[in-house]
Amino acid sequence: MTVAEPGLATRLQSTGAHALDLDGVGRHFGALVALSGITMRIGAGERRAVLGSNGAGKTTLFNTITGDFLPSEGRIRFFGEDITDLPTHERIRRGLRRTYQISQLFGSLSVLDSVYLACRGVSRRRFSLLRPRRDDVNMAQAELIVHATHLDDDRERQVATLSHGQQRQLEIALALAGAPRFILFDEPAAGLSPTERRDLVEILNALPSHIGYIIIEHDLDVALRVSDYVSMMHGGELFKEGTPDEIEQDPQVQEIYLGGGHG
Predict the structure, then answer these.
(1) Residue 41: beta bridge partners?
(2) CB atoms within 10 A of CB 247
(3) Which residue from 258, 168, 175, 170 is spatially nearest to 219, judged by alpha carbons?
(4) How far is residue 45's CA from residue 38's CA, in Å, rounded to a whole number?
(5) pTM of the full predicted structure?
(6) Cα(203)–Cα(197) distance, integer angstroms
(7) SS3 letters across 157-203
(8) DSSP 8-class letter at 258
């Protein structure tokens, strides 16, 4: 599956540049400090898990990265470009994508049409009124994405008739539209059955290596199987970082987040 040109990410990795570079990022809501002093550097193609209890600041971090909230302090760089003050749509044009905790889909469309419109929406021809031709590039990409997210058998189904797990797969498909360079996944395993969670892990691990991502996830079995590195948050701050094995075995992490152990 080809959803982005890998050369840029490869060059950035070789020069030590980062896909995301957060420097002292904070976000305040009046007297409430939701984020404080977040400094995080994530390499091109890296898969990072951000974990923490409810209220730790994880979703606020995502909202600040995507531009839903502008930071109260600090700077954010995306592949070396300062995007701190850019609106959300400009960040999308630069290849940043995200999914949300609650599905935001058009129930009356088919799966394939949904993915096609997502591909079309970030293309240069997005305002064209012409019907797509048989060799339409966006339709070809939509077909590839539907296959990559295990939705082949449901491609013509109306979105409203999909199961919760299938709708989560479709959200991942939409995030892959239009050559993403980096994706933020916000609790993609929430509400999934054990079988659907295994399918999710397979989909994420099979993504092209040049597409990096951050995943927020409460399911440790999912998060630790799809990430290269883990950042723990607590009270709006970074609490601890390490490899999945280091985080899983850390006694303090087990005590605070895992109830004394993790099987």
Answers:
(1) 21
(2) 25
(3) 258
(4) 21
(5) 0.85
(6) 10
(7) CEHHHCCHHHHHHHHHHHHCCCCCCEEEEECCCCCCCHHHHHHHHHH
(8) S
Whole-angstrom Cα distance, residue 13 to residue 77? Answer: 15
- Count CA atoms within 13 Å of residue 249 on its CB side: 5
Walk me through the domains of the chain, giving residue ranges and CATH numbers: 7-108+183-257 (3.40.50.300)
Q: How many angstroms separate the CA atoms of 69 and 91, rounded?
A: 13
Pairing of strands 81-82, 229-234: unpaired
Q: What DSSP element (H or E) covers 9? A: helix 7-15
Instruction: Report pLDDT digits (tens) over 40-67.
Output: 999 999 999 999 888 899 999 999 999 9
Residue 196 corresponds to which tokens in the numbers above?
Answer: 């659907």
Predicted confidence at residue 134, as pLDDT, reads 61
Q: Which amino acid is at 239?
A: F
Structure tokens at 160: 């409203």
pLDDT digits (tens, 9 = 90+) for 190-233: 999 999 999 999 999 999 999 999 999 988 889 999 999 999 99
On whether the CB atoms of residues 225 and 200 are closer than 8 A, the answer is no
Over residues 166-191, the pLDDT tens digits come to 999 999 999 999 889 999 999 999 99
